[in-house]
Amino acid sequence: MPSNKQPFIRTDLAVEARDMYVKEEEQETSIKGVQSTEREESGVKLVHVSIDEQGEQAVGKKAGTYITLHTESVKKQDSSSQIAAAKILTRELQHLLKENKVKEDDVGLIVGLGNYNVTPDALGPMTLENILVTNHLFELEHEKVSSGYRPVGAISPGVMGTTGMETSDVIHGVIHTFKPDFIIAVDALASRSIERVNETIQLTDTGIHPGSGVGNKRKELSKETLGIPVLAIGVPTVVDAVTITTDTIDLLLKYFGRKWKEKDDASNRLVPSSMSFGMKKLDESDLPEEKERETILGMVGTLTDEEKRLFIQEALTSSGQNFIVTPKEVDQFMNDMASLIAQGMNAALHEAVSIENASTYSR
Length: 363
Known about the structure:
Number of helices: 12
Number of strands: 9
Structural class: alpha/beta
Number of domains: 2
């Protein structure tokens, strides 16, 4: 079982929860109750994680299926790569719908969670702007609707701070009137890794906790609470200061570790211009040995990952400086990511829609 030190680490990603458990238990292959596969496709790293009741206890994530897409297309503003990622998202979402016995003509409700006035929390509402809603057409002009489309409605329920109502209560009311067969909720998440922010998309059939991305969890939206399948799509848009500090220390250690292996004098190489070399290519194999880490960072260099995080958290929290942070380019990132997700969802929900024309719908 994981130690009691883990809960303070802010992450909504199942793949990170799995990695934390494996690292702490010093296992290299499997966790009881957790099955995972990884592969790369069209520049997208694709990870499938399946968790049963036993695995739920081990990694602290609800039993179900989690699909993670890691793509740099949004940060690099690469439109062709974004289309490739959207196509993979379409396929994986269709897979989840079939796994949860959602039929091609079932009525769908898309829920855009979050606060439109807070950019890193606005992923849900921004995604809805490009969702193809069709339910009104089926209601008013059913005979004119072409084949290959299903009834889809959309709602952005806002946040409790502006509506005074729990999001789950609002959704319950909508379900009672609209009577959808399934829900897809879109929300911002949080990560324990800088490199995953605005680069990772998680799909799951376990539902979602509104407000997770900004550390303000509300009542969950799930099949257990709503009575119909609830799929969730989330993107980490924020990290906390503990994560940023810890990742920066690790990056420095990997940089000097590589210099040591190249027989450079690492202790004299702390020059900003030289640190641009190969930053994105640094990995775990570049970490130096404990003695070398101590030479670089003294006592801090000898701490384990969990000890380091606890130490930094204590320092930042006690001084009131454990901020939640988002990249300065968040506006463009959110626009592109919302568009990518909407394209993938439109194509997944409507057989007649392809990725190439899935981005033309705006309300």
